[in-house]
Write a structure and sequence with these properties.
The complex is a heterodimer of chains A (266) and B (386). Chain A is an alpha/beta fold. Chain A has a single domain (2-220), classed as 3-Layer(aba) Sandwich (Rossmann fold). Chain A contains seven helices and 13 strands. In chain A, strand 6 (60-66), helix 2 and strand 7 form a beta-alpha-beta unit. Chain A is globular and about 75 Å long. Chain B has 386 residues and is of the alpha+beta class. Chain B has three domains: 7-119, Acyl-CoA dehydrogenase/oxidase, N-terminal domain (Butyryl-Coa Dehydrogenase, subunit A, domain 1, Orthogonal Bundle); 121-228, Butyryl-CoA Dehydrogenase, subunit A, domain 2, CATH 2.40.110; 231-380, Butyryl-CoA Dehydrogenase, subunit A, domain 3. Chain B is built from ten helices and ten strands. The longest helix of chain B is centred in the middle third of the chain and has 37 residues, at 230-266. Chain B starts with 6 loop residues before the first helix and ends with a helix. The A-B interface holds A 191-199, 202 and B 7-8, 11-12, 15, 18-19, 22-23, 44, 47-50, 52-53, 62.
């Protein structure tokens, strides 16, 4: 039985800078990290495995990432954090994949792995911020999904009861397995890596699966398989400072009322 | 300075620093104030496998020896010299087992220590036997398959919190220094209890407590080595553990230096950062020189010990003395760089100064260390052919 975690390697946005001329991220010298939301997904996958072990059930946590060869480092880190193994989905043919093509490709890898109960994802990646890949994977696999999960209340052989965070509170949702769960940071506090985990990660063999290995249809992957077209990327203009109205309260109120009328009624 | 650490040693250093930075540093002031035992941090350290770094692989550790212990102790102490003691004092309590335990004893106790499931403590000092360890009064009387221990140990780090105590007691009063023996005593053994918990100047958040034996029956299998080896066990243990104290001192000193450099850069007087003044610059430079020299000395001593060289007492004492004196000097200077703010509890450096002081005192005062060093020098000189 497998628990799968989908992770993405992203630039460490805590020190990212934008090139003012091209409006693109300056990637040189920027460290790559595991997408912060995926760290919660890894932790929850490992905890779920531990909870299963307490019930006498064995499970294997497999971290899967699609990306360039250097994304192997993210998978090694996942192993150091408690995942049993890592699989890198990497092929030049995947270049230019949008969220549709990416979730298709990942779903192929998950099908190849087989025997899965839960697929954990972070709620979104800190670079693209789409929050589409997790749901996309569930659709390609034709299995249920619960997004913004903040707690796994309980689970048994056939399904789980989870809490989905909403703006007002949370929903309690029962879902059968297999299921895709995308998690929010409220779900746990990720542990630090362990020395034994790091040693294991250093020695771990990270399998690399190509488009051929996954039996992907060529017209469903990479740029050709991506219906999204990026027309333009731009930085929104910075917000202008507000207007300060000064004077006697009665005059200020009048002025404010006039301004609001202009904005609201025109 | 690059000490050409192995990949494994770098891993230990980086992970311990991460624990210190992310988990220990934020709670150090809280534990300094409350003086509670930091079980939440101990849990994190054990989950990260830190307790096993110096324990051989066959007993569940990483086999990193004294150098790994020093690297870990330094980084954890950078976060908090008190909290780090849960680890470092476990090291002190474990060395008697590592050095003199038989395979059965090692198999029984080391895996749990390596996994961080059980802390250890070393119990030698008594009210009237500090530097003069020869005057200990705690007795161990043979009674069939057991030894019966009676007496009170004082200032035992991890006392009450540890599960495994290595204890030195007198088995034969008539034999003087050769009449002491070392035992393993488990918490929960009837007759073992804990007394007063000390209220200390520094290294708060570490437990310093009386360990009391009242007709405490210990199975004879718990004797370390053989009868009469007690003092040799103690002295050898200190040879191995002192680089750990030295490393604790350097960790505290490095933190003081980091805080001072950072503050000197931020603090403006006369319209400029105080780091632009030569008076401050020279202080910072001197602090850095001392910290680096101390670290280099510790790593060299630790490597020598791990390589199985003989006559390690001198280098071990040199590293402990130098590093702890450095820590006192550097933390005092850090307070000076901070000026009035440095004297305030709200800022971190006065704590560093309080924490540093103990490193000149415990595991043998620096005066006793100088005695060890001097007698080694004299012995070496006598041995020279003329």
């Amino acid at each position: 039985m497998k628990i799968i975690v989908l992770i993405k390697q992203v630039p460490d946005t805590t020190d990212v800078k934008i090139d003012p001329v091209t409006n693109t991220l300056k990637r040189e010298g920027v460290e790559s990290i595991i997408n912060p939301f995926d760290a919660y997904a890894i932790e929850e996958a490992v905890r779920t495995k531990e909870r299963m072990a307490e019930k006498g059930k064995g499970a294997e946590v497999v971290a899967v990432s699609m990306g360039p060869p250097q994304a192997e480092a993210a998978l090694r880190e996942a192993v150091s954090l408690g995942c049993d193994k890592g699989i890198l989905i990497s092929d030049r043919k995947f270049a230019g994949s949008d969220t549709w093509a990416t979730s298709y490709t990942l779903s192929r890898a998950i099908s190849k792995l087989g025997d899965y109960k839960i697929i954990f994802c972070g709620k979104q990646a800190s670079d693209g911020d789409t929050a589409q890949v997790g749901p996309g994977v569930s659709m390609h696999l034709d299995i249920p999904q619960v997004t913004y999960v903040k707690k796994i209340e309980k689970f048994d052989e056939s399904g789980a009861t989870v809490e989905r965070m909403t703006e007002e509170g949370y929903d309690i949702i029962e879902t059968p397995f297999p299921v895709v769960l995308t998690v929010v940071k409220e779900i746990n506090e990720p542990r630090l890596p362990s020395l034994k985990g790091k040693m294991k990660a250093k020695k771990a063999e990270i399998a690399v699966w190509t488009a051929g290995d996954l039996g992907c249809d060529d017209d469903k992957i990479g740029l050709d398989g991506s219906p999204t077209r990026v027309v333009k990327i731009f930085t929104p203009p910075p917000r202008e400072g507000g207007q300060v109205i000064e004077g006697e309260p009665i005059d200020v109120a009048k002025k404010l009322a006039e301004l609001l009328k202009e904005v609201l009624i025109g | 300075m690059d000490y050409l650490l192995t990949e494994e040693q770098q891993m230990i250093r980086d992970l311990c620093h991460q624990v210190a930075e992310e988990k220990i540093k934020p709670v150090a002031a809280k534990y300094d104030e409350s003086d509670d035992f930091p079980w939440d941090i101990v849990k994190i350290m054990s989950e990260s496998d830190i307790f096993g770094v110096f324990i051989p692989e066959e007993y569940g550790g990483m086999g990193g020896g004294v150098l790994a212990m020093a690297i870990a102790a330094e980084e954890l102490s950078w976060g908090c010299g008190g909290i780090a003691l849960a680890f470092a004092a476990t090291g002190l309590g474990t060395f008697p087992l590592l050095l003199y335990g038989n395979d059965e004893q090692k198999k029984k106790y080391l895996p749990d220590i390596a996994a961080g499931k059980k802390l250890a403590a070393f119990a030698l000092t008594e009210a009237e036997a500090g530097s003069d360890a020869g005057s200990i009064k705690t007795t161990a009387k043979k009674d069939g398959d057991h030894y019966i221990l009676n007496g009170t140990k004082q200032w035992i780090t991890n006392g009450g919190e540890a599960e495994i105590y290595t204890v030195v007691a007198i088995t034969d009063k008539t034999k003087g220094a050769r009449g002491a023996s070392a035992f393993i005593v488990e918490k929960g053994t009837p007759g073992l209890s804990f007394g007063k918990k000390e209220d200390k100047m520094g290294i708060r958040g570490s437990a310093t407590r009386e360990v009391i034996f009242n007709d405490c029956r210990v199975p004879k299998e718990n004797l370390l080595g053989r009868e009469g080896l007690g003092f040799i066990v103690a002295m050898k243990t200190f040879d191995y553990s002192r680089p750990g104290v030295a490393a604790q001192a350097v960790g505290i000193a490095q933190r003081a230096l980091d805080e001072a450099v950072n503050y000197a850069h931020e603090r403006k007087q006369f319209g400029q950062p105080i780091s632009s003044f030569q008076g401050i610059q020279f202080m910072l430079a001197d602090m850095a020189i001392q910290v680096e020299a101390a670290r280099a000395l510790i790593y060299s001593a630790a490597r020598m010990i791990d390589a199985g060289k003989k006559d390690i007492a001198k280098v071990s004492a040199i590293s402990k003395t130098f590093a702890s004196d450095v820590a006192m000097k550097v933390t005092t200077d850090a307070v000076q760089v901070f000026g009035g703010y440095g004297y305030m509890r709200e800022y971190p450096v006065e704590k560093l100064m309080r924490d540093a002081k103990i490193t000149q005192i415990y595991e043998g005062t620096n005066q006793i260390q100088r005695g060890v060093i001097a007698s080694a020098l004299i012995k070496e000189n006598l041995g020279k052919k003329r």
